[in-house]
Every structure is written in structure tokens, then in C-alpha cells.
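Exam prep: given the inputs below (a chain plus 2BA), describe the expected output before reading on.
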Amino acid sequence: MKLIVAIVQDEDAGRLVSTLMKEGYGVTKLATTGGFLRAGNTTLIVGVEDEKLEGALGVVERVCKSRKQIVNSGVATVDPTMLGSGALPTNIEIMVGGATVFVLDVCRFAKF
Ligand code: 2BA
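Solution:
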């Protein structure tokens, strides 16, 4: 048995949960926060039999789309006092979405 830990964007989470449930997977949804953006994201944990792993990963890949986002990094790479205006653009374009996925071996599964 495997445990899938999938970190996805909130925008994709609802559809991902309903698609996984419809296809017969058990899902737990956790509200999480990304360390870089400090914004909400969603972490799903999905326990699957080995033979159903690729099917579940296929659903995650199909539903979660990558998109560009402009964010304020909040970190100036140059000391503003070194510049006349002191104004530094800290907006950067990053790719978000898709899914960050970890697959772990489950050494024991029980429901008490
Ligand atoms: P965040 O940490 O908020 O990162 C959001 C997105 O910001 C990342 O998307 C990446 O495109 C960008 N990013 C992150 N760190 C960066 C940096 N130092 N410089 C420039 N851009 C940076 P993803 O890579 O798709 O990650 C989405 C979310 O997945 C992350 O949200 C975090 O919550 C989680 N994550 C990613 N890698 C992880 C890891 N190795 N372990 C645990 N969680 C991870």
C-alpha cells in the first residue's frame, strides 16, 4: 500500500477531491500553507493499494493545472538605501499549480 501526499492549489482542490472520490479513492483534505508564498494551499492524503497508485496519480495530473502568478517576494535583492529612489521592484513571476506529490510506502494500515 502507498500513501500519496499531494500539495495542490485551493482552486483545484474541490474538483480533485470529487474526481478522486468518484473514481473510488479515499481522500483526506487538509488546509495548509506554502512556506514560500505564505498563502493557503491544500494537501490531500490518499491511501491506495499498489495497483491503484498510477490511476490516482493520473487523476492528480489531469485535474491540477500549472499557471503563472505574479507575487511580491517581499525580499529585495539589493539594499534600497544604495539606490536614489529606494524603490525596488520585488514582484516576480512564478509558476504555481500543478501538484507537488510525494509517494510513501505504508508499513501498516489499520482502522480501529
Ligand atoms: P510554496 O512554498 O508557497 O511555493 C509556491 C510556489 O512558489 C512553488 O510552486 C514555486 O513555483 C515557487 N517557489 C517556491 N520556493 C521558491 C523560491 N525559493 N524561489 C522562487 N520560487 C519559489 P511549487 O514548487 O509547485 O510548490 C507548491 C507548494 O508545494 C509549495 O508552496 C509548498 O507548499 C509545497 N512544496 C513544494 N515543494 C515542497 C517540498 N520539497 N516539501 C514540502 N512541500 C513542498
